[in-house]
Write a structure and sequence with these properties.
Layout lengths: L14 E6 L19 E7 L3 H11 L3 E3 L2 H5 L6 E4 L6 H10 L3 E4 L7 H14 L3 E3 L7 H11 L6 E9 L18 H4 L3 H17 L4 E7 L10 E8 L3 E8 L8 E8 L2 E5 L5 E6 L2 E6 L8 H11 L9 H16 L3
Parallel strand pairs: 1-2, 1-4, 2-3, 4-5, 5-6, 7-10
Antiparallel strand pairs: 7-11, 8-9, 9-10, 11-12, 12-13, 13-14
Helix pairs in contact: 3-4, 4-9, 7-9
Length: 337
């Protein structure tokens, strides 16, 4: 990889977006939000099948579409690019965009592996071009509420945290694609653990800090694909807090679980990372808070990103932030760190 040079980036007054990879994830979760956020508009989309890109553009009222990423990256009207391809292509497209002086919002996981994530961070530093990673759940009201309660120490000093994600192979939680690329390590870096755990582990670090010791094991029990289907991990967090997690994607129907638990000295919190309720136990009472998800789940994060790209706010999820969760994932999937 050639060493990038610093790029003169003019502070924008409006963010004109292009999407590389306008697949299913962008239909509702993210794509429409770019036109609903102040000082932001979606002006072009790209997909390798140009006919599908055209179809997406016409259905969503997007003025331009492309069949080649380079054409979108070099479009002079675009000053920010959202990369929503399989992880294999994140590094290539993000580097090309940053070298062209275009701010980048890249889907999770940030890249195929930890080494690629670090290269992306380095290019952002060397070019001076902004880079944000799509750990968008940290911008949702439920998880902002958890962070607020933890900062206020409403359950006292934290003792332990645990995550349990148990899903059958045909879980409705798991996004379906024609070629099932999410369980192809060559395209996704790993299996469904790599697709879903980034959200959970990003929140773990966001809430409780960077781990000091990590170890884990991963196996493929069912043989339905080449990637891991069962992962277990433990970690030590700051202040002697211990964490353990289990991810199983061959759980029997009816035995599903999506649990994130944080236990403190005087109470605890339980919630689903992919749900909308928070249970708080404190002072001998139990409270349940319910949250209405936004129509476009990434819109709160995109609002923060636009303000960051405009120079009015901090980075809502930096490369350094995302690298922390990737370090945990690789240690869990490939052994102790």
């Amino acid at each position: 990889m050639n060493t990038p040079h610093p790029i003169s980036v003019i502070k924008p007054e409006f963010i004109h977006w292009g999407i590389i990879g306008c697949g299913n994830v962008t239909e509702v979760k993210s794509g429409p939000a770019f036109n609903k956020v102040p000082n932001s508009s979606l002006v072009a989309v790209m997909r390798r099948d140009a006919l599908l890109a055209e179809d997406y553009a016409k259905r969503h009222g997007v003025p331009k579409w492309y069949g080649h990423a380079a054409d979108l990256i070099n479009d002079p009207e675009i000053n920010a690019i959202y990369i929503a391809t399989p992880p294999k292509y994140h590094e290539e497209y993000a580097i090309a965009a940053m070298q062209a002086g275009k701010s980048v919002y890249v889907e999770k996981p940030m890249a195929l592996d930890l080494a690629a994530c670090r290269r992306l961070e380095q290019v952002s530093k060397e070019t001076g071009v902004k880079l944000v990673v799509a750990h968008y759940r940290r911008a949702l009201p439920l998880f902002m509420r958890v962070k607020e309660l933890l900062d206020q120490e409403v359950i006292g000093n934290i003792r332990f945290a645990r995550i349990s994600l148990l899903q059958p192979d045909q879980s409705a939680m798991i996004a379906k694609t024609g070629n099932n690329w999410r369980v192809d390590p060559a395209l996704a870096g790993g299996g469904l653990f790599y697709d879903l755990a980034p959200h959970q582990l990003d929140l773990l670090v966001h809430f409780l800090g960077k781990p000091t010791n990590i170890m884990g094991l991963a196996v493929n029990q069912a043989g339905l694909y080449t990637a891991e289907d069962l992962v277990v991990g433990v970690a030590q967090l700051p202040n002697q807090v211990l964490f353990n997690g289990t991810w199983c994607f061959t759980t029997p129907q009816g035995k599903e679980e999506d649990l994130f638990e944080i236990q403190g000295e005087t109470g605890g919190m339980q919630f689903s990372v992919f749900g909308h309720e928070l249970t708080i136990e404190r002072n001998g009472t139990v409270e349940i808070e319910k949250f209405q998800p936004p129509q476009h789940i990434q819109q709160p994060m995109i609002e923060k990103i636009v303000q960051y790209f405009l120079g009015n706010a901090k980075n809502p999820c930096s490369a350094a932030d995302a690298i922390l969760s990737m370090e945990i994932m690789e240690a869990f999937a490939y052994g102790s760190k």
